[in-house]
Amino acid sequence: MLDGGDPADVPAVAEGRAGVQDEGSQLVAHALATAPVEGRDERWLDLCAGPGGKAALLAALAAGRGAGVVAVERHLHRAGLVRRAVGADGVLGVVSADGARPPLRPGSMDRVLVDAPCTGLGALRRRPEARWRRSPDDLVTLVLLQRRLLASAVDLARPGGVVLYATCSPVRAETVDVVSSVVGHRGDVALEDVRPLLPGVTGADDQLEGTAQLWPHRHGTDAMFLALLRKR
Ligand SMILES: C[S@@+](CC[C@H](N)C(=O)[O-])C[C@H]1O[C@@H](n2cnc3c(N)ncnc32)[C@H](O)[C@@H]1O
User: Which of 98, 113, 187, 214 is the most exposed place for a label (fewest CB within 10 A)?
Assistant: First the structure.
């Protein structure tokens, strides 16, 4: 951890051996990797992977446990950024495809991350100008996509496998409402408590029991939202 200064001046960052990542994003990858899973634990999926920050961390964790990550990213150039970020260890493949209809077998994944495209309003402390770029209409489009991506993630998880839904946003429409809607509409997935998977984090309770909302003023992170689902 750096107390200050420009991370680009750190040799490991300049040489591509290390990356810069908000602690909230690291907690998302950590929560997915440490969720208890019984039985096979070899195939992890990052369904919205670009530019690859969480995929890189997941791949490192997976490699240490004999598992591998498949990274899906819709936009070709961002899939290229994922390839650059992850390296070879712990990576089963990087695919440029729509995460709502990826070329992957249903029920084939042990752990799935949906770090969904969102308003990004949880990162206003780093990108304050984002407030002028977003309109209420964006939210309507994003919520529809978020629901489709989360439903697809549940389809791709094996029975007993886990899905972690995350957004860099505290906006209810794209956090608890998306999760409630998907869990409420299907009988093959249940919400679990993500909070025990966030070491040292208190005061992150959200209105939907078991989900977590991080806050810059409480946790020193971006305002990341996390929900853990288990496929029945
Ligand atoms: C919040 S960002 C993910 C950040 C990434 N997990 C990281 O840690 O670097 C969401 C990503 O989803 C991608 N995306 C948007 N629509 C998608 C879709 N239908 N399928 C897959 N990826 C999509 C965006 O291009 C963007 O790169």
Answer: 187
Note whether 114 and 164 are within 8 A (CB): yes
Tell me how far apart the alpha carbons of residues 209 and 211 are, in angstroms, rounded to a whole number. Answer: 6
Question: Residue 101 domain-assigned?
Answer: yes
- Give the closest residue (by CA) to ligand 1 atom 11: 48
Distance between Cα 52 and ligand 1 center (Å): 9
User: Closest by alpha carbon to 154, among 195, 194, 188?
Assistant: 188
Q: What is the CATH number of the domain that holds 216?
A: 3.40.50.150
Q: Within a domain: residue 162?
A: yes
Domain total for the chain?
Answer: 1
Task: Please give the residue range of the domain that contains residue 153.
Answer: 21-231
* Ligand 1 neighbours (beta carbon < 6 A): 25, 48-54, 72-75, 78, 98-100, 115, 117
Model confidence over 45-78: pLDDT tens digits? 999 999 999 999 999 999 999 999 999 999 999 9
d(CA 22, CA 30): 13
Tokens 């990213």, residue located: 73
pTM: 0.97
Q: What is the pLDDT of residues 112-150, one digit of tens each?
A: 999 999 999 999 999 999 989 999 999 999 999 999 999
